[in-house]
UniProtKB/TrEMBL annotation:
Domain Matrin-type: 54-84
Record's subcellular location: Nucleus
Protein name (record): Matrin-type domain-containing protein
Gene3D superfamilies: 2.60.40.2690
Stated family: Belongs to the SF3A2 family.
């Protein structure tokens, strides 16, 4: 093709670039500039979604490749939003993470890594079966002793379904697990019937005694009637009414 008579071109220069070629060249230059200053692995606003595209969490934009995202970070919109966020955070006096520049508690902040402690074994425990004399509900009282518990720590509990754990396989839907953990002791797991726990007032409670270093947890299962008619309008639970 003859380019020598094209307006604005020089002989041998190949002619004036089109608008699309100019934009492509600009994006490539911005991409190379961003690669010199940005590490995508440490960018708190960079996110790869489930369809393989890339998103900017600050500007809420979607990009088809990393080059497009990098070019976006050098643009006016992204830089303006960065300045606005910094100004708002400074005005509100929020605690800023020194690594990411994000307020503490937001996505991307540097969460302190908990040091691995050497486990010293399982605590001593005692389990007592009990029954409420009025409602006839079956219950359990757990008593665990933590004489060497870490300073400032107290035990915590969690209920886990059979399908969450990977120890007792295959999973049996008729059972659930109660986990009680406290550093530096190993976590204790108790296998219970997969029945709904009554967490109403006075039916479920925990107590940590910092003097004797003992932890108490008492729980009652709901009766079969309460489980069967739970949530049914007009069906009051059995047992005496609580004022």
């Amino acid at each position: 093709m003859d380019y020598q008579n094209r307006v604005g071109s020089k002989f041998g220069g190949g002619g004036v670039a089109s608008q699309s070629q100019t934009n492509a060249d600009r994006r490539e230059r911005l991409r190379k500039l961003a690669l010199e200053t940005i590490d995508l692995d440490k960018d708190p606003y960079f996110f790869k979604n489930h369809v393989g595209s890339f998103e900017c969490r600050l500007c809420l934009t979607v990009h088809q490749n990393d080059g497009s995202y990098l070019a976006h970070t050098q643009g006016r919109k992204h830089q303006t939003n960065l300045a606005r966020r910094a100004a708002r955070e400074a005005k509100e006096g929020k605690n800023i993470d020194s690594v990411t520049g994000l307020p503490v508690g937001m996505i991307g902040q540097q969460i302190p890594v908990k040091k691995n402690l050497i486990k010293i074994g399982r605590p001593g425990y005692k389990i007592t079966k009990c029954r409420d004399p009025q409602t006839r509900q079956l219950g359990l009282l757990f008593q665990l002793s933590y004489p060497e518990i870490a300073e400032g720590q107290h035990p915590r509990y969690r209920f886990m379904s059979a399908f969450e754990q990977k120890v007792d396989l295959p999973a049996d839907k008729d059972f659930q697990y109660l986990l009680i953990a406290a550093e530096p002791y190993e976590t204790c797991g108790f296998k219970l019937q997969a029945r709904e726990v009554d967490k109403s007032e006075g039916r479920f409670w925990t107590y940590w005694d910092p003097d004797t270093k003992e932890y108490y947890l008492q729980m009652f299962f709901k009766t079969e009637r309460e489980e069967k008619y739970a949530g049914v309008p007009g069906m009051a639970p059995s047992g005496p009414k609580r004022m």
